[in-house]
Every structure is written in structure tokens, then in C-alpha cells.
Amino acid sequence: MPEQLTKGQNATLTVDDVVVSLALTAAADLSALLVTAQGKVRSDQDFVFFNQPTGPGVRLQAGAPGQSAELAVSLGAVPADVEQVRAVITLDDATSSFGRFAAPTARVADTAGNMLYEYRIDGLDSESIVIALELYRRQGGWKVRAVGQGYAGGFAALVTDHGVSVDDEPAPTPAAPPAPPAPPAAPAEISLTKSRPVSLTKGQKVNLKKDGGVALTQIRMGLGWDPVVTRGRFGARQANIDLDASALLFAGTELAEIVYFGKLKSTDNSIVHSGDNLTGDGDGDDEVIAVDLSAVSARVTTIVFVVTSFRGQTFEQVDNAFCRLVDATIAAELARFTLKGGMPFTAMVMAKVYRQAGGWKLQAVGEGVDAKTPQKAAKQLHPFLGD
């Protein structure tokens, strides 16, 4: 068992090579500052972060699945005039704060994976940046100290205060004032044709029939998204966004079943999920849910397609979220609904397919709810189950 450290406590390191890792419930980055006795870096090369993953004696390496990168530190290779290696945690969302999540934990292990020390960083509130711990020289050896110091000035202020040079970003071009919104009009219900795919608007309804009025039976609902690319003072980057598409089956207002990454097929095999995508990288559909409408249980009246954010990141960090309806028999896209701009929600109700007058209809929804899993989203879907 690792020794538990409390804020301000220090302990001796008896190995030459250590790995600093994190246990987090929020998306965040780990970085390192190599500082002299004056608390400053010697040059920008002493700042190790995602766009500069190696420094003298320190490098970033891939962490455990779903967690941030780790810092591998070869203490014997750290230059003699570097007194401290400070490990810094920075939330991906600079507008958020550690107080919204469970306390992060910093861990120090040897290269064989044996945990030496663990520090749960309690007491954080409004901070989005914290100096978690530091490795420092003492009487010819190295020690670790639990720091847990929040930093209110922002990431750029933190590294600037440590002597890292920061280029100013160009001032953003002021946006033109928005035009007054027009009164909303009820979108017209439309029919589908494979020769002319339609671009749906929020609330729009579609008859699920092919040309000539033949009912669609084999459909695919493709859902996709892209992580927002941020351009900061230290270059462009994009965060991994772990979104999950699911289909929730309702009999009236009663939840009958959920098809998602943890259950890829419905009981009657009428709905099949393609599997989980952990990042949103790549073009096209990120996850696909195939539906055989002719085989859906007669008791199921509505199928709601939801995308949830497993790590709790909001859709403000997601770009180009869309769903598209494909006729699976001919692989032709029939309709697409795209959400422009982010929303401060952790789940998005994208669309629903529902029975009406002996057939099936599709409706684009595009409404946000707060839920990290489809099970939690299910409790908030009653408003979307009517016609």
C-alpha cells in the first residue's frame, strides 16, 4: 500500500526513477516545471507539457485509459542546478473548477508500477489549476512534498511567474452584434427521397417512407462529433471527448430497454450498436445504431437517440455534433440534423423515432440535459415522448 501524504507533508524517495500519475474525474492535463533555487525555469525547455513532452530528465508518457498523461522522471538525469520538479494539474475547461468534481489524487510510483506515495488533494474550490506536488533535492538525495496549491491567475500566469516566456495571442476580432431573432415557426413535416437528402431543423418531423410511399424498414442512425480545437498560448490542441451514443426504447412513458456500448443489441435483436468510440477522432459517423423497424417489439412506441458525455465534459467542447438517417438497404443518406455551437450540457437528445398512424416517423430534437450515462438521461426524457 502506498504511504498517504497530507498537504505540506514530505517523504524520502529511495529510487532513482519515478512516475507521477493522477486519478481524475475531470478532463485535465499534467505538466511539469523544472525550477532553480530561485523558483524559475532556466529556459522554456524546462517546461514539459503536451506540446513539448520532453525536458531534461522529465518526459510525458501515455497514462492509463481515460486518465491524463504521466510524468516519468529520471532523477539522476535532472540537471544539478534544477532544485525542484513541480507537477501541475490543469483542467481542460478553464471556465470550470476542481470544486465541481471529486478531489484529484496524485501518485508517485517506481518504474515497475509499485505505488510509493499517494496524495488526495482535498480542499480545492474555484481553482482550475493546482500545483499537485513537487520532487525536490535535499542533502544529496530527493524527496517528494504534497503541495496542493491552487493557482488563481490562470495557466499562462502560472508559467509566466515561473519564468516561461509566453507569446501574446492576437486580439480576437469583435463579433458583429446579433440580429434580433425572428419568431420561431413550426417546421413543416416532410417526406424523404433518396435523390435529395434533407437537412433537418430542430423539431422537424419526417415520414419514414421511401419514394412511392413504401415504408422504410432497415435504417441506420449515424451519430458523430468532433472535439473543439483550441488555440492557446502554447499551440493548438484538441481534447479527447468520450461521447457515447445510445438508443432508449420506451413503451409509452415506460423505459423498456437501453442499447449502448455496454449492451450492443436489444433483446429482440432489432437494434444493434456499432460499439464505443472514445475520442470523436476521424471523419464520418463516430457511432452507428442500426434499427430494423419491422422487428421492433410491438410494445415499443418511441426510440430516443441520445449522446452522453461519459467524462462529464459539456457540449461546449464539442463541434459539429450530428445525427443522420441512412436507408441501410441501399446505404443512402436520407436526412441529416447538425447542431452548431456548444451547449452547457453533458447529454444531448439528438432525435427520436416513434410510431404514428400505423407507421414510423423521425423527429429532430437537439435538446440538452445533464446526464453522463444513458441510464441517467432516461429519467429526463419524458418531455420528448409525446407527438
Describe this structure in words.
The relative contact order is 0.13. It contains two helices and 28 strands. A hairpin with a 4-residue loop joins strand 25 and strand 26. The chain is mainly beta. It folds into two domains: 3-161, sav2460 like domains (Lipoxygenase-1, Sandwich); 190-384, Sandwich (Lipoxygenase-1). Helices cover 3% and strands 44% of the residues. The longest helix has 7 residues, at 155-161. The protein has a seven-stranded mixed β-sheet with strand order 1-11-10-3-8-7-6, with no helix packed on it. A seven-stranded mixed β-sheet has the order 14-16-28-27-24-20-21. The protein has a six-stranded antiparallel β-sheet with strand order 2-13-12-9-4-5, with no helix packed on it. It is elongated, with a radius of gyration of 26 Å. The protein has helices at residues 155-161, 374-378; strands spanning 3-5, 10-13, 17-23, 28-35, 47-48, 54-55, 58-61, 70-74, 84-91, 105-110, 115-120, 129-138, 141-150, 190-191, 198-199, 205-207, 218-227, 229-232, 235-238, 243-251, 254-259, 271-273, 287-292, 302-309, 318-327, 332-339, 347-356, 359-369.
Properties at a glance:
mainly beta, Lipoxygenase-1
How would you summarize the topology of this molecule?
Elements: E1 3-5, E2 10-13, E3 17-23, E4 28-35, E5 47-48, E6 54-55, E7 58-61, E8 70-74, E9 84-91, E10 105-110, E11 115-120, E12 129-138, E13 141-150, H1 155-161, E14 190-191, E15 198-199, E16 205-207, E17 218-227, E18 229-232, E19 235-238, E20 243-251, E21 254-259, E22 271-273, E23 287-292, E24 302-309, E25 318-327, E26 332-339, E27 347-356, E28 359-369, H2 374-378
Parallel strand pairs: 1-11, 14-16, 15-26
Antiparallel strand pairs: 2-13, 3-8, 3-10, 4-5, 4-9, 6-7, 7-8, 9-12, 10-11, 12-13, 16-28, 17-23, 17-25, 18-19, 20-21, 20-24, 22-23, 24-27, 25-26, 27-28
